Predict the 3D structure of the following.
Amino acid sequence: MDRIGVVGVSYRTVEVERLAAAALPAEFPRENLVELARLAGFSELVYLGTCNRVEFYFRGETRIHTNPLLFHLRRSLTDLTDGACQLPGDDSLYVHFGPAAVRHLFRVTSALDSMMVGEAQIAGQTKEAHEIAHQSGLLGGILDQTFHESFHLAKRIRTETELTRRPVSLVTLVERTLRDHLASTKSPVLILGAGEMARQSLRLV
C-alpha cells in the first residue's frame, strides 16, 4: 500500500496561472505517459488534469520517498514537454502515500474535495483519466483496483446520500447567473476562459 501515491496541485494551493502551467499540454501523446512512468519509476500511472487540479496517481516499483520522487517527476516532465509543464515549488504541491493517497483519491472522485462539494463533473473526468491510463497499458495492479473502488464509493454517495440529489457544478451556477442577467438587461456578456468550463458556459448564451 505504501507504494501507491499521489503528487498534485489544485485550486487550494496555487492560483489559476500556476495551475495551468502544471498541466500536461493538450497534445501530449499517450505514449509519452508510458515514458513518463518509466522515467519516474512507476509501474502504474494515472494523470488527472481538470480546471481545478493536476494530479499524478502512481504505484512505485519499490517504496518511493518524496524528495527523489519530485526530482525525477520534475525532470521527466520537463524533458517530455520541452519545458511546457512546470510544477510549482514543493510548498505548493501535496504528496500523499499509502492510505492517505487512497483517501485523497476517494475524496476527489466523490466530489468531496471539489471547489463545489458534490459537483457532477469530477467523477466523469476521473473515469476518463482512468480509461486513458488503461488504454495506454499503465494500469493492471493495485492502483487500478483502487480507482475501481473509488468509482464504487462515488456511486454509493450519489445514490445513498442527499449530496448529489440536486447536482451542482460551476457551469450550473454560471447558467443561473447568465439567465438572471439576460432576463433583466440587454447588456452583452463577455466570457473569458480557455477550458471546458468556459466552452460549456458559451453554449448557454
Residues 13 and 92 are 5 Å apart (CA to CA). The beta strands are 4-10, 42-49, 53-60, 94-97. The chain has a mean pLDDT of 87.
